[in-house]
Amino acid sequence: MLVIQKAEYIDLDSLMELWYQLIEYHKEKTNHILITADWKDKKKEELTWIVQNTQSMILVARLCDSTVGYIRGSIRRMPALYDHVIEGHIEEIYVQENFRRTGIGVQLAKAARLFLASKGAHYIDIHVDPDNEQGQKFWETIGFETIAIQKRLHLS
Q1: Assigned CATH for 2-141
Q2: What pLDDT was estimated at residue 30?
Q3: pTM across the whole model
């Protein structure tokens, strides 16, 4: 039975492994994702902070006591001069390859949507790599639309 719940400290090692799988997945598609040699320490510190923070979330998907996916998001406040001052962001989602196309990603996205809405978000933004056709299709299927194209200039 699939269970989606807020991540706890006990989930950190599983989350680090899933995050590394996500990075490897993207490294096959693009060359702009590089990680440091000490990424494990830095990622554990980041995940610990997120688990403690009330404006951020990591939700895990468990199947038979095994963590098979996660989603990470946060709330950001815009300056008060905007009509909608609270925006939600989904920074990462990952489902292990052998569990994809089973509805786990959709369930994670729904749970994240509920969390972000409960924090007052008026909308949710995501960034999807343009080469990630599977990711693009996933987000469009569940109602997200393209509103901008992000560009980058490398300075070194």
Answers
A1: 3.40.630.30
A2: 64
A3: 0.88
